[in-house]
Amino acid sequence: MKFNLFIGLILISLSIFAQKNITIGHTSTIYSQILDEDRLLEIYLPKSYETSNKNYPVLYLLDSFLNFRHAVASAEFLNFDQRIPEIIIVGIRNTHRIRDLTPESSNLDPKERERLGNVGGADNFIAFLEKELIPHIEKNYRAAPYKIISGHSLGGLFNVYTFLKHPELFNAYITISPSLWYPIDNIYQGLDTIFPDPTKMKQTFYMTLASEIGGNMRGNIIKLSGDFENYINTHKDTSLRFKYNHMPEESHLSVGLPSVFFGLRYIFEPIKFKRFKTKAAIMAQGGPKKAIDNIITYFNKASKTYGFEISNESALIDLGYDLLKIEDLKSYAVDVFKVNLKAHPDSYDAYSLLGMAYESLDELQKAKDNYEISLNMVKKTGNFEWETYKADLDNIEKKIKAKTDKKH
Question: Is residue 176 part of a domain?
Fold first, then answer.
């Protein structure tokens, strides 16, 4: 009996020891002199943050209580799919939501003003973001200068107001079913009047609408969408980017998740390198070596433009795979994967890919050397797919043995 009790206690202890909390971020508090209150922040740092010295673009997320978890999931998945870079997310918890997210408006119906209560604090909230929160984040975290804001419903209204009044405050806006039933006084002036110099407009504005059909909100959103399209089509010298995505299958609440997902994907579309799959396309660039140089130049320029390091890893890997499929060019795949390894020396995949290229050229010992390094590295990470890398090593060892046996 004592023995059974002893074993039971050991098993319980092992179970408790093995359990670990899954965390996606941490909370922090900032005192705002402008708002005269503490504001709770929810902060997500990307996986590589602790082991790198890179700077990361920042997503400032309104209505964090509802949106933080799905925004983190979207950011991590899109990065895993190589659609966006890693980002920091700063979620801002509400205190007086209606006050902070609504601008003062002479066109607000008195009955609406009475119903809503404390309105018109958007300018103060903009000042809080600009003068207190953003400097606080940039001081305490490795934040790149590239800033995104995401706002839903009244947060979307705030986004529109901020863009019209201070477009330069953020580089990109994810505006989700904005509550444009609430009047913004200067919105009726038209974008040509508000932004007379189109060459200064370099922002990205992504806007969605759910199934809302009541009142004048839908009509105002569609009108604003048309204003954006007309402005961009009229001014070919502007760098302003805009996309409107109607999601009638979503409710006013559910539209938040897909909007953040597709909004982030749209914002970072320009950093996606165009793939040249055929021999003709590769040779048109000047051949494989020039194709490598083009990738390096492209991502160096993009990193300088955006203000943070944009990895060229995905583009190099694509080029390497494409070269392997072209018989008389596949030897250049080794050159590509060597460049990739030099740029990403801590990547076990970089070693694995170089090993694969050597294997395709029947340079089996060099392939084995790289597969061994890759396997040792991946085991240290705890990646449950390490057996795949072991299989590569086992297969190459079998090939080497078969080749040796054949000679004898």
Answer: yes
